[in-house]
Amino acid sequence: MTRKASTSRHLSPTQRKRLYSVARLLAEAYGPHIFPDEKDAMGKMLFAILVSQTAVTNARKAMREFREMALDWNELRVHSVREIEEALARCRIAPAGPLATLLKRFMQASFDALCTMRLEVLAQARPEVLKGYLQAIGFLPPYLVQYLRLVCGLDSTPPLDPATERILERIGIFEPGCEDAEARRAALGAVLEDPLHFHHLMHEHGRKLCTPERPRCSRCVVYEHCAYPRSAQGSAEAAAAAEGGGAAARRRRPSSKQKAARAAARSKRKGSKRAGAGGGEQRPAAAARRRP
User: At what angle do helices 195-208 and 162-170 cross, to 10 degrees?
Assistant: First the structure.
C-alpha cells in the first residue's frame, strides 16, 4: 500500500498517528538509557557529540569518566587533549584522538565566546553574542548546532540528522526531496511533545538497524509501519544480502579434498584408539612375565 508523504509544514492525522506509534515502539525497544543523564546544556551537548561517533554505552562510560576526572565542565576544559583521549580510550572508544580533539575544541570555543561553560546563558544573550557563538562552533555538523539550540531553549524543533531524515522518509512521513530541512523540522516541532527524546530515538535506531545500506528490516520493531522493505530498493538490497549469505555459505562448504582429508584423519584416530585399547589389555601379562 502506497502512503502519501507530507509535502507541507503540517502532518496529516494519519501521519501523526504513525509518528506517535513509531516513537512509542522505539522507546519501548531502546529504553531510557539512550537519553542523556545530564541536566545542564553543556553536559547534554558533550553526550550528543559522543553518541554522534560511538555507541551509547561507551558514551555513558565516557561521561562518568569526565565527572570523575573533573569537578565541573570548566575543569574538564583545561585538561589536555591527551588526557581526554586517554579517558575515551579507557571507555573503548576508538579512534579516541579525533573525538577528544572535537570535544576539547567545542568546550574551548564555548568558553572563549561566552566566558562561561553554562550554555543556558544563550537564552538571554544579545543577538550579536549569539551570532558570534554560532559562528565559533560552525565546525560542528548542522544537526548538532540544532541540538544545541534545542537544549538551550532557543528552539523547540528537533534536530534533523541523517538518521532521522532516512527513517522518516522510509516510514512515509516525508517524501524524499520535497521539503527543505526547516520545513520538516517545523512540521515535527508542531506535533512532538519531547523533540530531544525523539532525536535520540531516531539516532539510535538509525545507527543500529535502519542503516543507510542493507538495513536490518527483519529485526525492526517498526517494520509494519515501514514501506521500505517492500520497495524496489529494499527488495533489491534484501536479494543482494541473501545472495551474499548464500555465497558465504558456499565458501564455507568443504571441498572433496578437504572431506577426504578429514575422513582419513578420523580413520587414523580410530585406529590409534583401537591400538591403545589392545596394548592396555596386554600390559598386565607382560608385567607378570617380568616379575621374578
Answer: 80
